[in-house]
From TrEMBL:
Example GO molecular function: methyltransferase activity
Keywords in alphabetical order: Methyltransferase, S-adenosyl-L-methionine, Transferase
Database matches in CDD domains: AdoMet_MTases
Protein name: Methyltransferase domain-containing protein
UniProt keyword RNA-binding, yes or no: no
Organism: Hymenobacter actinosclerus
Matches recorded under SUPFAM superfamilies: S-adenosyl-L-methionine-dependent methyltransferases
Source organism superkingdom: Bacteria
Spans through the membrane: none
GO BP terms in the entry: methylation
Entry keyword annotation includes Methyltransferase: yes
Alphabetical list of Pfam families matching this protein: Methyltransf_23
Length: 245
């Protein structure tokens, strides 16, 4: 019987592995339900501290205690935190990404889905790190609400989630600047993506871009204190969701 980990499409992981092995031009094609095809160089996942957006550098400065890096990719954030003395567990659903992180020296790496009950294996964390529009990993509005509850099982008392997301309402503006939504349809920030690397086509997956008002409402309802730390010109923001002691 074949191992599904080795037979399932993993375009992101294979692009990261090729880059790690010296194919510096490795590039992914990203297809989405809201935009034209985009090109994503694998090099972006290997960026150094000073190549990171300011929101990410701020997030790293705000980390505390034991860190769980969710959707860690090639491990650039985990590696930077290790140099600062943090103990970091880096997880990703991509087998190739996990392999790359191990090769690059991330000390604690595991392959997990965001909602995997075994994610913490009984361990708790002080900071959950979700960068690169990391809240999108929750997939849908329902997934976001589910994750905010699930995260409580991963966090120590006083723990925090540091995450980035974006408001993509600007993509629905007409010529006059008015927003045009299907009010009977799903939340406008719910997007479907797929990735392609060469001839390898990955499965479609859901991604959510949560506008700040929506996130404020969801997180407050789930019992978190919400603090918006920073915003950039692309309407991407960094938020801290914290639990009381």
């Amino acid at each position: 019987m074949s191992n599904p980990e080795t037979t399932a499409p993993d375009p992101l992981g294979h692009a990261l592995l090729d880059y790690q092995q010296g194919q510096l031009s490795a590039t992914l094609a990203v297809h989405s339900s809201v935009a034209d095809e985009e090109v994503l160089p694998a090099a972006y996942f290997f960026r150094s501290l000073w190549e990171m957006p300011e929101l990410e550098r701020t997030a790293l400065e705000q980390c505390q205690g034991r860190v769980l890096d969710l959707g860690a990719g090639a491990g650039c954030h985990a590696l930077e935190l290790q140099t600062r003395g943090f103990v970091v567990k880096a997880v990703d659903i991509s087998p190739g990404a996990v392999q790359v992180m191990q090769q690059r020296g991330v000390r604690e790496v595991a392959r997990h889905d965001l909602f995997d009950p075994a994610l913490a294996q009984g361990e708790k964390f002080d900071t959950l790190l979700m960068l690169m529009n990391g809240l999108g990993l929750t997939g849908t509005l329902e997934g976001l609400e589910h994750f905010l509850q699930h995260a409580k099982t991963l966090l120590n008392p006083g723990g925090q989630i540091l995450a980035t997301s974006s408001d993509i309402s600007y993509m629905y503006e007409d010529e006059d600047g008015a927003l045009v939504f299907d009010l009977n349809g799903p939340y406008y920030g719910e997007v479907t993506y797929s990735m392609q690397y060469g001839a390898e086509q990955g499965a479609e997956f859901g991604w959510i871009f949560a506008d700040p008002t929506l996130l404020q409402d969801c997180a407050t309802q789930a019992g978190y204190q919400v603090e918006f730390l920073e915003e950039d010109e692309q309407q991407q923001y960094l938020v801290r969701l914290s639990l009381g002691f």
